[in-house]
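Give me the fold.
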Amino acid sequence: MLFDESGAAEALRPGSITVDMSTISPSVTRAIARRLRERGIEHLDAPVSGGESGAMAATLSIMVGGEAAALERCREVFGALGQRVTHMGPSGAGQATKLVNQVAVLGNLAATCEALRLGRASGLDLARVVDAVGGGAGASWQLANLGPKMLAGDFAPGFPVRLARKDLRLILEAARELRLPVPLVALVDQLFSTLAAFAGEENGTQALYRALESPSPKRP
């Protein structure tokens, strides 16, 4: 913990910079940054997108909130982790951007699952569906990277269901604070809750395909 008696904040000198690359609440991030700034410490929220493959290849997209000068001091470190480092604004802006990203990612994942389910019910060769749709306006990272895994029955976690559910909760909390309706997110949250109840939370998010394919997915 940052702020308990043996926390990192107690050991940091004024002028230091802390960097949080996890995905947490934007409002919590702003509170952390305020407390650290009182000690003369800058804080960057720098969540990432790009999946397990992006982390391994150091091609992540990094969304940074905090002071621009602090980001420049950390630019070389970020450059070793990702190809695109974008300053999004003050503290909390990186986390807010990551939640925007997750709306697009998880909403698109649900659409990909449902599209492949329709293809299967129509008697189509789903490998050809992925190839054909992936060459047009329906192309997406989810279809290209997770579509083949769904078809192969490969539900090993790159990004596990439990983390998707955590991100969905954060999106819904942020939307409530903003008084913003997010009906698609609410629906996807329900689908993931159903998946978790029947198949657990440690499968990859592509396991959502199985939840949509069968009304009663079974625990592996």
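The longest helix spans residues 93-121.
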